[in-house]
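Quick one: structure tokens for this chain, please?
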Amino acid sequence: MPRFPETPRKKLLIATHHRLDLWIAPEWFGEKLQKEFPQLEITRVTSYEGIERDLADAEILFSQSLWPEQFAAARKLRWIHSSAAAVHQFIFPELVKSDVILTNAREVHGPGVAEHVMALILAVAKRIPESVRFQQKRVWGQEILWNGGACPLDIAGATLGLVGFGSIGRSVARHAYAMGMRVVVVREHPEQNPPESVQQELPSSRLGDLLAQADYVVLSPPLTPATHGMIGREQLARMKSSAFLVNVGRGPLIDETALIEALRERKIAGAALDVFDKEPLPADSPLWDLENLLITPHTAGMDQRLWERHYSLFSENLRRYFKGEPLLGLVDKQQGY
């Protein structure tokens, strides 16, 4: 009987590298994929050194980032899946102009980051950082808080301004609405019929209107040329003096110098930041010394079940890819998100 040549296996390259091992794909991730998808040839690397060699015959790439010179070596590449929600690190001309599909893990990170947002809002509203400082000094600070005008606040009835309405923003809106907050959203393309959790949607051109009415402003838009530095002196001046700013998007969304000035001069009540221009945040950063700033060290997306959720999304997308069906988490490379 004639022997037909075997169909060549498609190569999947899992390339994850980070100082924190949480962001590195565990061994079981590749092993489980290999069992479920025997038609794949899977290579897992935890360093980008010499990655051009591994990229040369890869059809699918699972990674946090890719440089233009690395992309040039990936001549068989057809699909990139970003293990991060952010994709600005992939938006360079060569990739944008190519036919390579780009997807991201926004649905993996969104729910957990949204919980972190609510924790930050409740922390600043209920004056938790101040209470922690009193505890460290063994001071009963009840009268100090009251007489100093820092009485804990109810968030029910307060206005939450969401800048960005992707996976994080939608989840935050649901939580906030359930807790009695009024939710206003700024997004590039407002919907005529917003979800029940949103009381008002505004176009990006009306960011100032959102800032003027919000008691809590939450930033979670993608980092693009249009959103880089979107919160500066002018925007901070539009905020209420009693308002708080929360950033779980990317550090460069905010002009840090302008924010430091606004916090020092009490132009806004306070801020809570999980992301920064430089990470880790340098020890000499003036941000550390601001008492009305709550800092979390980019922990909003951290979760013990993170890679289980990654597997669920990516394996579903692999099934869709082999069937020629639309992929989940598809990124518009021209828009950058």
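The longest helix spans residues 106-125.
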